[in-house]
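During the practical work, I worked with a single protein chain and the tokens that describe its fold, as given directly below.
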Amino acid sequence: MAKNTAASVRQKLLNKAREEKRPFQELLQYYAMERFLYRLSQSPHSGCFTLKGALMLWAMQGPTSRPTRDIDMLGQTSNEPEAILDQVQDIIAAEVMDDGLHFEPDTLKAETITEDAGYQGLRVTFTGFLDNARISMQLDIGFGDPVFPFPSWLEFPTLLDFPAARIKCYTPESSIAEKFQAMVNLGELNSRMKDFYDIWLLSRQHEFRLENLKGAVDGTFQKRGTEIPETNPFSAAFMDSNQPQWQAFRKRLGQGHVPEAFSEVVEAMVEFLSPVMARSAEDAPREIWHPPGPWSRQADG
């Protein structure tokens, strides 16, 4: 890695941060995650991991998605820590065009984590460097969840003029299914404002077929041993008590299009998910969601 490349990239990111009025540290983190994903795409392990979470939403939706500092993935590979560490070491060692980044293999660590949904995964941490800037990297890897109907391959957006990663991504349907299951599992204790935001945003920006959304929700809830609620699981008291947390989350997002009232987001989300909670799937093949809704029946023919 040439020193002048790293310094040049750092300066370009600083300039971009000023132009877009975004924190430099945020762009630096995104750049490091983007270039890690490019290394993944160029490695023999590219088919072993499926991108999910906030970074997947960034790939699909760009700046309207929420900021994140970690990479969430589904691993279709061994869940043994040593095996995962070996794969990540291969990924960060992949030979790629000089992009100024260096990931330090001696800093690689893995630990078992338990997600809010109650299932175990692995967290891998390591350190990257761009010029004299130090970047903390975190991969959260889950195992065993279904992706319905099947993963899609997307080109990950780039911040600068470097090759883009083509990576396997979760479907919006499976992302919604996992977030909804976590909400139901946590019940009134749920404080994950990001999940409510993500489902709300996905429902406002993407078209859905009810049979696919229902298939993803059914598969995820069954896999995780959770009953799908038949009616709205979010009480008025729950919405009222979480309004302060929503206000704080909204302030951190800094996006004017986001509703001020948490109840507005929850009610819109429930409208979107209500056919999924209904027992009857008779009309599912003909129901379609054109954002921002409501559901409508697809014309025959």
